[in-house]
């Protein structure tokens, strides 16, 4: 029989859904705080201070620190990946233009494969035109008739705000991707840029920004872009 010990009295303060490290999947959790007491013969007597907060998995009942919420749920991760590919695609279309049928088809196929199954060419072109109309997003001008986007000489062809959007879409995703996953996103963009021939300087700049946002070393980005240019 245990004469003395410490007992924790837990109180639930919030709940939600998270990726449970022990279960390896999305689970509900309870966010709990507790107060510890010294017990004698099972009777709580002397307070020993507060503990927590902890996240308690509703399935395995394991306790985890609040930083477990930094790992996205499977549903959230899928949405982040889908949005990242969509943003990269729009950035490349803005940089390289949409006059080429091969580029448009490759862009649509890429976005659909990422999870936007109903995406159409018209939808991408409409979004691109909306971005072009927002002068805070694109540096240059976009011709909706010819599908060409051209940055004024001496200005950033990618556009500062568009580069910021790439970083906002890719940087939160990068820590949760294996190196092969980060490289795959860059190569998807490279295939769009190469659909009508060689990289243009503007496309190359966008892809360099993508590599940087995915925490790829510049040497690795250059190696991958060169490899993508070589037919398999």
TrEMBL record:
Residues 154-224 form the Co-chaperone DjlA N-terminal domain. Signal peptide: none annotated. InterPro entries: DjlA_N, TerB-like. This is TerB family tellurite resistance protein.
């Amino acid at each position: 029989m245990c004469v003395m010990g410490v007992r924790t009295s837990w109180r639930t303060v919030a709940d939600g859904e998270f990726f449970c490290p022990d279960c390896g999947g999305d689970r509900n959790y309870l966010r709990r705080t507790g107060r510890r007491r010294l017990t004698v013969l099972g009777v709580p007597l002397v307070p020993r201070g507060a503990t927590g907060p902890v996240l308690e998995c509703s399935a395995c009942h394991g306790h985890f620190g609040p930083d477990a919420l930094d790992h996205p749920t499977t549903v959230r991760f899928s949405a982040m990946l889908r949005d990242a590919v969509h943003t990269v695609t729009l950035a490349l279309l803005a940089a390289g233009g949409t006059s080429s049928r091969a580029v448009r088809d490759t862009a649509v196929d890429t976005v659909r494969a990422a999870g936007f199954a109903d995406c159409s060419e018209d939808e991408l072109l409409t979004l691109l035109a909306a971005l072009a109309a927002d002068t805070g997003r694109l540096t240059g001008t976009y011709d909706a008739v010819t599908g060409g986007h051209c940055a004024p000489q001496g200005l950033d062809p990618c556009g500062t705000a568009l580069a910021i959007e790439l970083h906002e879409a890719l940087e939160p995703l990068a820590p949760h991707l294996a190196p092969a996953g980060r490289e795959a996103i860059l190569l998807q963009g490279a295939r769009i840029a190469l659909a009508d021939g060689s990289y243009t300087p503007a496309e190359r700049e966008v892809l360099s920004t993508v590599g940087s946002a995915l925490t790829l070393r510049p040497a690795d980005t250059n190696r991958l872009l060169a490899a993508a240019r070589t037919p398999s």
